[in-house]
Design brief:
The protein is mainly alpha-helical. The chain has two domains: 80 residues, ACP-like (Non-ribosomal Peptide Synthetase Peptidyl Carrier Protein, Chain A), CATH 1.10.1200.10; 44 residues, no CATH class. The protein has five helices and two strands. The chain has a two-stranded antiparallel ribbon with strand order 1-2. Helix 1 packs across helix 2 and helix 1 crosses helix 5.
Length: 130
């Protein structure tokens, strides 16, 4: 499946899950700040991606689930260990901008439409290789 085909399916998932228009779902659109996704929406997005692409997504695989751990956060900032963990567990996300201002409250802003497309592309490639 091409990246464009994946984008179109992800776009459909986000239109259905978030009630946004196709034009709003651009590659650089951030799920929270641009498309107004809330925490409950992330569960719906995971479910819809699983259904659309026919694979399972493990807990914490697409979006972080344990980043609040005191090992990874000090004074509201994600520390170097936390950032390393995020990068390791989520290679589909570009953390370069977040690394400059690693406020825990801003971690959800790193998730863009492109990060979802990259995630799906990686999952499909892994299942094809298996």
């Amino acid at each position: 499946m091409s990246q464009e085909d994946i984008f179109k399916k992800v776009q459909g998932v986000l239109v259905d899950a978030l009630g946004v228009d196709d034009e709003e779902v651009t590659p650089t659109a951030r799920l929270t700040t641009d498309l107004h996704a809330e925490s409950i929406d992330f569960l719906d997005i995971v479910f819809r991606i699983e259904k659309a692409f026919g694979f399972k997504i493990g807990q914490g695989e697409l979006f972080p689930d344990n980043i609040n751990d005191p090992k990874y956060v000090q004074d509201g900032l994600v520390n170097a260990a936390g950032l390393a963990l995020l990068k390791e567990k989520m290679p589909h996300v570009d953390f370069s901008e977040f690394a400059n201002d690693p406020k825990l409250e801003k971690v959800s802003e790193v998730f863009t439409v492109t990060s979802l497309v990259n995630f799906v592309q990686g999952k499909l490639a892994a299942s094809a290789a298996a």
